[in-house]
Amino acid sequence: MKTIAGLHVHEIVQTYSDTLIRIAVQQTKNMSEAEDIVQEVYMTLMRQKKPFESKEHLKAWLIKVTFNKCRDYFRSSRVKKTIPITEEMNFIAKEEQIVLPEIFQLDEKERAVVYLHYYEGYTTAEIANLLEMNVNTVGSKLRRVRTKLKTILEEGS
């Protein structure tokens, strides 16, 4: 059985699928498309020739590829009308579900920055690397998003 970064493929799928699905759902707003995107990520992983330095490197690579696949999805002809957030997304923790609809009001890049910072715990420098953005851009997006979310949440109360 193939191992990558010291993990068997089934261990990689078990370890990272929830994170990758959450990212893809957050980006596409569509569970079915998110699942397809994550499948594509794993297929890309299986074709990957370069070794990974560590599990952290593997995770960062998987996240980066997921965001890239989501970007490709929006550029493709596959984009359809999105389905509303429903109980089918019960894999998301209850506290995340409270703010999730508000996060969907943000644009794609803003959602990505928020998710990586608040849900995955990445620093602005790590986010900049993952999303191929300037560190200062990531910082300013986080500041703008905080203000935007605060306004959205206050208006909804």
TrEMBL record:
Keyword DNA-binding carried by entry: no
* Alphabetical list of Gene3D superfamilies matching this protein: 1.10.1740.10, Winged helix-like DNA-binding domain superfamily/Winged helix DNA-binding domain
Positions the record marks as coiled coil are none
Could you tell me the superkingdom of the organism this chain comes from? Bacteria
Identify a single GO molecular function assigned to this protein: DNA binding
- What keywords are annotated for this sequence in UniProt? Sigma factor, Transcription, Transcription regulation
Name of a matching Pfam family:
Sigma70_r2
Q: Which PANTHER family match?
A: RNA POLYMERASE ECF-TYPE SIGMA FACTO, RNA POLYMERASE SIGMA FACTOR
| Family statement | Belongs to the sigma-70 factor family. ECF subfamily.
Record's protein name: HTH luxR-type domain-containing protein
Organism of provenance = Lysinibacillus odysseyi 34hs-1 = NBRC 100172
